[in-house]
Amino acid sequence: MDASRRMFVGMGVAAAAVAGSALKASAATDPMKSPFNKFWIAAVTPVDRNGNFDNSANDAMLAWWKAQGADGVLLLGTTGEAQSFSIAERKKILEQASKNKHGLDFIVGTGASNYPDAIELSRHAADNGADSVLITPPFYDKNPNSKGVLAYFDKVFAQVKTPVRYYHIPRTTGVPIEDTSAFFTALAQHPNLVGVKDSNGDAKEFDLITAAMPNLNVVTGTDNLMENTLSRGHGCILASGNIFTKQNAAIYAAHRTNGDWKGALARAGDAQKAFRATVGAGGEEVNKYALSLLLNRPQIYSRAPTVPLDEALKPKIAQAVSQLKTLG
What we know:
Layout: H1 3-29, E1 39-42, H2 55-68, E2 72-75, H3 87-97, E3 105-109, H4 115-127, E4 132-135, H5 146-159, E5 164-168, H6 170-173, H7 180-187, E6 193-198, H8 203-212, E7 217-220, H9 226-231, E8 236-238, H10 245-256, H11 261-279, H12 284-294, H13 314-326
Parallel strand pairs: 1-2, 1-8, 2-3, 3-4, 4-5, 5-6, 6-7
């Protein structure tokens, strides 16, 4: 075999190896096949003083969360202030963030008040590193008929063929569900539906949703339902994970090894209570300042309408972060 042909064959083998590796990585993070009991962080979105996305801070956060034991992140969800960014900005944020996922599973919020935007964002996300997307029902028109919401998602699923999660957060969207069992049973007929993020925090409703979707992953978006979701072997997507990453990761590590996950859950709850008792406040700005301290980075900010951090809280947050660090 001449040298040029050997080079060509060698390049082909190398390319096949790379392709095979990519396929394996894809299968490992395929939400239709991977374990349900994962811990995702409902990630904050860092911006600078001028309100511009700070990708350097975001990349540092992703690396830190992975090192602390998180399985994945939800980018551009409610905690991530998605609706404070334009469609073009949301695309750019993902494009920059996905350049280095740090081994994290990416769920990307692609909800919008109309289905053309939701479809556009979802297809873009699938092409730019998202392992699945999280879609809210259409908001602004409050209390729509559930049949209309199902029709909306029929439009979405007709054009989005990659993994999708339904985002149930009626206190924010203004979209409650009239007949929980019937609605989620109907929604589950879409073959690329992965499951639901339930951020309503109602235990009885959570039970109804999981019963309607026995083969899908219904994860909690509120800390109060952690025991409910773990008892079913399901996951969580939590805002508390931004700063209590190690504590929440320990819960899932124990659960996967049949360890004392209830003990880990209690310790995580104690850590949050101690933090809140010291700071006396919560929210994205508190989380962001705490993250800045944990990562030893300049302060990160939010966009209006989020109110800037009260300067009087900074020493309290610093004290709470110091206490948190002692927990290991």
